[in-house]
Amino acid sequence: MVSVVAVDGPAGSGKSSVCRGVATRLGYRYLDTGAMYRAMTWAVLKAGIDPDDAAAVAAYASRPLIASGTDPAAPTIKVDGTDVAEPVRDAAVTDAVSAVSAVPSVRERLVTIQRDQADHAVGAGIGIVVEGRDIGSVVLPAADLKIFLTADAATRALRRAREQAGGAPVGEQSVSATEAALSRRDAFDAGRAASPMTQADDAVVVDTTDLTLAEVIDLVCELVLERAS
């Protein structure tokens, strides 16, 4: 059995939708590590801490209780018992999450939780699909299968702009601004000292540019089944 599937990739590559779809189809648990970093960022902002003050963020990082539900049909994210699934997607959190995520003590704390979630699933005899930007390289380097999802910059920007618009039409200017923002975040995350975003050497690269969501889910599930045979 393939117990742990690690899925990495830049924003807009389709990680969340694909991972939830794969986990649902295979009866696996699902863990969105990006939501955990957003939750920590939300907590930092709510506490009135400057997200660019690494020392202050580090001093605070051990305080909030971050709890991530692993049901792919209804994933949850809570801070000290409060549901923050909606506020963690606010622009303020999006603008600050890279800075907070770059603080080593933040990553150390959340990586420990992420590994515990994976160990708990494996111990229960249930597979888990874990998505993020450093899962195959840092968090779960011994994962049974590592996937690196990607897509060209224009496609990723269009997807993210549509997501942020909530289904409303998006214009060329909005897509261009989103592409620039994604490029800045990718560069920041790839260049940070603590657990930079990177493709694991043994990851299978899946380019989602010209594939539908259903096609990508099919492909990843096939890879899981092939690895299990």
From TrEMBL:
Swiss-Prot/TrEMBL catalytic activity: CMP + ATP = CDP + ADP; dCMP + ATP = dCDP + ADP
GO CC annotations on file: cytosol
Q: Which UniProt keywords apply?
A: ATP-binding, Kinase, Nucleotide-binding, Transferase
Tell me which Gene Ontology terms the entry assigns under biological process: nucleobase-containing small molecule interconversion
Q: Which GO terms describe its molecular function?
A: ATP binding; dCMP kinase activity
Known EC number: 2.7.4.25
Tell me which CDD domains the record gives.
CMPK (cd02020)
Q: Where is the Cytidylate kinase domain?
A: 5-224
Q: Which family does it belong to?
A: Belongs to the cytidylate kinase family. Type 1 subfamily.
Quote the protein name from its UniProt record.
(d)CMP kinase
